[in-house]
Every structure is written in C-alpha cells, then in structure tokens.
Amino acid sequence: MIAATLSVLISVVTIATALALVDFWLRASSAYALLKRQSDLVKAGFVPQVEARVVRLRPAAPRGSSAATRPFATRLPRRASLPARLRGAA
C-alpha cells in the first residue's frame, strides 16, 4: 500500500513538473518573440510607445503652494534627546 501511494505521488509530481516546464517554455517563447519584434522595429527606426498603465505621473500640487510646502516635502520637527540620567544610563 505504501509503495502504491509513493508511486502515485511521484507520478503526480512528475506530471505537475512537466506541465510547469511546458508553461514556462511557452511563456518564454512568446516573450522572446515580442522582444525580437521590438528589436526589429527599433532597428527600422521606430520608437516603441510605452503603455498608459506603465506611465505614472506625480500627483499635482495644490495651486499657489511652493515646493517647500508640499506634503511630500514637509519635515517633522526634531525631538530633543533625553539626558543620559533620564534614559537609564549610569
């Protein structure tokens, strides 16, 4: 019974591995074909256009605010460090 279970387990793992390898091979071949096509277009003088979902613009700042007052440029005040005797140091 243990031998049959192990042989079935090994068979399932082998089939899953083979399917994964075929999937990776198909994805790689389609990616290679796309890269080859883009390379041929660049050699011909065309510039590939970037997809709109790839381009991410910076959020617009409110009108009338300078760069120093934008939310991403604000700084937190520095906290003064505690004296050594209050920190528990000897």
Throw out a few tags for this protein:
90 residues, 0% strand, mainly alpha, 2 helices, flat
Describe this structure in words.
Residues 73-90 have a biased composition (Low complexity). Residues 63-90 are annotated as: Disordered. The chain has 90 residues and is mainly α. The protein has a domain at 24-48. 52% of the residues lie in helices and 0% in strands. The protein has 2 helices and no strands. It has helices spanning 2-44, 84-87. The protein is flat, with a radius of gyration of 30 Å.
SSE layout and pairing:
Blueprint: H1 2-44, H2 84-87
Region (Disordered): 63-90
Biased composition (Low complexity): 73-90
Order of helices and strands: HH
Oligomer: single chain
Characterize the largest beta sheet: strand count, sense, and whether it forms a barrel: none
N-to-C CA distance:
70 Å
- Tertiary shape: flat
Specify the number of helices: 2
User: Which bin fits the share of residues in helices?
Assistant: 40-55%
How big a fraction of the residues is strand?
under 5%
Q: Overall mean pLDDT score?
A: 79
Helix/sheet category: mainly alpha
Give the beta-strand count. 0
Q: What's the Cα radius of gyration?
A: 30 Å
Low-confidence stretches: none
Biased composition (Low complexity): 73-90
Region (Disordered): 63-90
